[in-house]
């Protein structure tokens, strides 16, 4: 009888350690994935090497994972509220990541097709609401998926336009938004207010309406390009998407036979934005045998990448980039890999 009780007790302990989730996410090196298998330009040129995106594995931590991460390099514990918004569940967080992935693919198409001189038509359709802060005024007036097309009579076609406009507003001001919801146009009046304490940066009193947005656009390209990213989310693959598309559009093989990994958010103007988890991505790229890694300069990403490179003692070349053009210029002077 005692043995049976002991066995049941151990099962309960095991289940508790495994299935009870803590208010933390655990991040660790993911993998480097070949983009030629994810992106296909119709009748695109082939390549001898590979461009690769790098990922960070992210998941809610249980007790065992929490203890394991505490003693392992490049396994990081991050408080839940630093990754998910206070009112956001796991499914909503995942959906937001997929929306950012779509935005990153759009920016990659625009930059790559313009640089390659290929046919590209972009139609800006407004700004999609992708997040709402429950304590803020917009939560009472807007819904996820609403498309903002005007602010105080001014046409809004890009998220950056709306952000710049709202920056000049003061607490208590009212803003008239015209939105599209389920194929209907609606007017909404929203008052600018202070953000909750969890969103504030001391000593500034940050104000706004309490939304996050993404530019909604439709893109038609010739030749066509198709993506199959298998549920990967976030904006950080933008630079590598752009390189892969451009490589398939042009006769020159820009890989020069190398395995080239990297990361960085791609903006429509060709600039490369910083990302999170770059040291874990360095580890992932090294484990996948990458020869070269493109790292954004912004927000010390490049310096952090060099630190990880030296720590794991890899021969992988880390290349700093601020723009898509920087990456191309590096590849332009690169000699073809011997044996490729």
Automatic annotation (TrEMBL):
Segments traversing the membrane: 7-26
Q: Which residues form the active site?
A: 236, 281
Single Gene Ontology MF annotation: ATP binding
Q: Where is the Lon proteolytic domain?
A: 232-334
Q: Which reaction does it catalyse?
A: Hydrolysis of proteins in presence of ATP
Q: Does the keyword Transferase apply?
A: no
Keyword presence, Protease: yes
Q: Which UniProt keywords apply?
A: Hydrolase, Membrane, Protease, Serine protease, Transmembrane, Transmembrane helix
Give me any GO biological process, just one.
proteolysis
Gene3D superfamilies referenced in this protein's UniProt entry, alphabetically? 2.30.42.10, 3.30.230.10
The catalytic activity of this protein is classed by the Enzyme Commission as: 3.4.21.53
Matching entries from Pfam families are given as:
Lon_C, PDZ_2
PDZ domain residues are 110-183
NCBIfam families the UniProt entry points to: SepM_fam_S16 (NF041438)
The record's family statement is: Belongs to the peptidase S16 family.
Which PANTHER family does the record match to this protein?
ATP DEPENDENT LON PROTEASE FAMILY MEMBER
The protein's name in its UniProt record: endopeptidase La
Look up and give the organism this protein is from. Bacillus taeanensis
């Amino acid at each position: 009888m005692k043995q049976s009780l002991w066995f049941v007790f151990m099962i309960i302990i095991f289940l508790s350690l495994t299935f009870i989730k803590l208010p933390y996410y655990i991040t660790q090196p993911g993998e480097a994935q070949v983009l030629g298998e994810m992106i296909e330009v119709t009748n695109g040129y082939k390549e001898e090497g590979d461009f690769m995106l790098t990922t960070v594995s992210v998941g809610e931590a249980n007790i065992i994972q929490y203890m394991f991460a505490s003693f392992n390099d490049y396994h990081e514990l991050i408080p839940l509220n630093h990754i998910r918004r206070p009112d956001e569940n796991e499914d909503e967080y995942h959906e937001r990541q997929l929306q950012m992935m779509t935005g990153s693919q759009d920016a990659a198409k625009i930059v790559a097709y313009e640089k390659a001189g290929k046919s590209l038509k972009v139609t800006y359709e407004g700004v999609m609401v992708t997040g709402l802060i429950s304590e803020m005024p917009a939560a009472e007036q807007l819904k996820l998926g609403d498309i903002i097309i005007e602010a105080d009579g001014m046409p809004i076609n890009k998220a950056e336009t709306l952000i710049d406009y709202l920056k000049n507003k003061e607490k208590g001001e009212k803003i008239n938004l015209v939105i599209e919801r389920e194929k209907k146009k609606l007017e909404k009046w929203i008052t600018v207010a202070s953000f909750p304490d969890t969103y504030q940066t001391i000593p500034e009193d940050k104000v706004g309406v309490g939304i996050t947005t993404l530019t909604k656009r439709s893109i038609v390209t010739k030749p066509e390009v198709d993506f199959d990213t298998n549920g990967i989310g976030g904006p950080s693959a933008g630079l590598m998407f752009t390189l892969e598309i451009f490589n398939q559009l042009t006769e020159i093989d820009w890989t020069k036979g190398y395995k080239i990994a990297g990361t960085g958010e791609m903006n429509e103007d060709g600039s490369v934005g910083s990302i999170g988890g770059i040291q874990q991505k360095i580890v992932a790229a090294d484990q996948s045998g990458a020869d070269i890694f493109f790292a954004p300069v912004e927000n010390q990403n490049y310096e952090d990448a060099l630190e990880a490179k030296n720590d794991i003692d890899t021969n992988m070349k880390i290349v700093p980039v601020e723009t898509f053009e920087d990456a191309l210029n590096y590849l332009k002077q690169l000699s073809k890999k011997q044996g490729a």
